[in-house]
Amino acid sequence: MARTSLRDTSNGKIFSTANLIFGIGQISKMTDVSTRQLRYWESKGYIKPKEREDGNTSRLYGYDTFLKVSGIKLMLDEGYTLAASVERTDALMAEAFNIRGFLLDAYHGEATIDGQTMLDLGYFDEDHTQRLYAHRTADNRVHYVVKPENGAN
DNA sequence: TTTCTGACA
DNA sequence: TGTCAGGA
């Protein structure tokens, strides 16, 4: 029987954050950053409210902005200047999205190898005769296993 | 009630 | 950045 996998489900629409929209007051409470600061950061070009077609002038922020504000706030609390906090948050977010994209491309589903549930990481070699699997050990170390494609090695 | 811009401390 | 004014 076919099983559902993140790799081929809804074109990535599952767990989408596209409809997570927040007002300035909500973002403020969620991140503990004042509305005054949020408007100031916007004036500095650090954050950008969502474009809106209706006449309403109140700001709306997407999930991405919530993440960015959270990151900046964290750096600020660590003692970095606002500019440095923005720079570091941008870098970390870029890295995080890179990792996410890489992982989604590398992930080919789950497989049970020797009674152990493992991640199928796809073909291991150029001629597609072996697949690479990985799983985490009890102490959270990553363990890799290479197995022949058809099981008859 | 919430949000907005501008201004003053 | 906080806070207040005066509107919307």
Automatic annotation (TrEMBL):
Could you list this entry's UniProt keywords, alphabetically sorted.
DNA-binding, Repressor, Transcription, Transcription regulation
Name all HTH merR-type domain ranges: 24-84
Q: Which InterPro entries match?
A: DNA-bd_dom_put_sf (IPR009061), MerR-type_HTH_dom (IPR000551), MerR_fam (IPR047057)
| Name of the featured protein | MerR family transcriptional regulator
**Species whose genome carries this gene:** Furfurilactobacillus milii
